[in-house]
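fyi for ur records
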Amino acid sequence: MMSSSPLAGAGDGDMESLPLAAASDYASVASTFDPLLSSSPPSPPAPAAFPLSRASSSFVDPPSYADVAASSPRSASASSSASPRSARAATSEYSHIAVSDPETVAEAAATSIVSGSAPTYISYLVTSARRGDHRRHAVRRRFRDFVTLADRLAEAFRGHFVPPRPDKNTVESQVMQRDEFVAQRRAALERYLCRLAEHPAIGTSDELRVFLQAEGKMPLPSSTDVASRMLDGAARLPRQLLGEEAVAPPQDVVQPAKGGRDLLRIFKELKQSMVTDWGGVKPPLVEEDKEFLEKKQKVQDWEQQLSSASQQAEALVKAQQDMGDTMGALGLAFVKLTKFETEEAMYDSQRIRAVDSKRIATAAVKASRTCRDLNTQTVKYLDTLHEHLGIMLSVHTAFSDRASALLTVQTLMSDLASLQSRIEKLEAASSKVFGGDRTRLRKVEELRETIRATEDAKCCALREYERIKENNKVELSRLDRERREDFLEMLKGYVTSQAAYAEKIVDGWETVAEETSGYGRRSDNMTS
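which gave:
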């Protein structure tokens, strides 16, 4: 920013520098020399009296970034304590997790007639280190491996709020530049692994440890192969209908029926759902946890408020960006005005106004860049809204696990009631035959065996349902605690940064107001 000290000449001997009047002399100088303010137009001075030094660019050039870049206010950048996310990361099993060095790899089994056109994929270097262990593990993983990890975690941690993995984003990969897309995906995958490590249950799991430390390619488990599951389910269906596999094994009932491996179970659970929802028939087991139902409704209401706040945050960021752009355009306009005033100046007061125009231009550019810095801080703090909105997907998945487990128990209990009813009918029909009906009695024994297997499956499904209920309870408590911590930190940071940067902008304009205060005094004198 320029001061009221004289401007040195640029070099030619016949050029004179312009001595600038102090702010207190604005009125006299303006009334004497400025035809816009004086009552009678004076005769123009000799051209050589106030020549413009063309070698000096102090009036014309816009202020450099070094001159006007506003440093981040200390109150906005300093933090008296670690953020809640940093505290959670400090308690995780891993002290370091990073995804880096993306490289293009050709498919091993791919064959192509045209040289160089074989299918390729992007491989990422995943490095990690456990706390207390000086060794650092480094493995290569592709996006398909992250999908496999997510599927394994979904099976092993039903009822938990498992952080969602990044989407495949096939459309974005075709629209965006390749390097930009790969960079964004790399950052998203790194955030995903860090969130998994911060989870109190998943962070210590074998699934995550194997992914981070096991060298070589990640095997694709059969449970994630949709085509093979559908084929297995179609092959088993005839045997199930004939009674050879009437009951699902206990190890299968603890997993959701969707996927196609057990088509008969899918049909039974679909029937149970339709009877319960549309038929108005009360199922043998219902959700009676009123505390959970109340929290579930509150979470749904919270998601709506969160979505609205997230949209408003995006609008705020856009408005602050527009403000910064507008202030930058204002600064550029005053730079052009400064150039015009300087080149066309005939009077001292015009040159003084040129200096003041540059002061305004400098303040406007400062304010523009301060707005940009403020917007960066706004995005940083309000991103908590988007993060928690993304967590809602995990919450819905955990609630869906609970509903699916309950439906499995209801279906098995209905099957037991149906089997018991069939036995009673067979026994009643057999009792009418003298000496009993051996065929019906043999069928009764087969049904009793089926009942025993169904009872075992029901016990396993009921234990899984209770386990998911407990996981939901623990996770809801954790979510509530982390939400309070994160949003308190967000509000503190947002308010502090807004106040600090607003004060920075005000200070800049107050300085300009003091330097141009002569205009105000001149206006007061003319009014009086």
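Residues 145 and 219 are 8 Å apart (CA to CA). thats all i got for now
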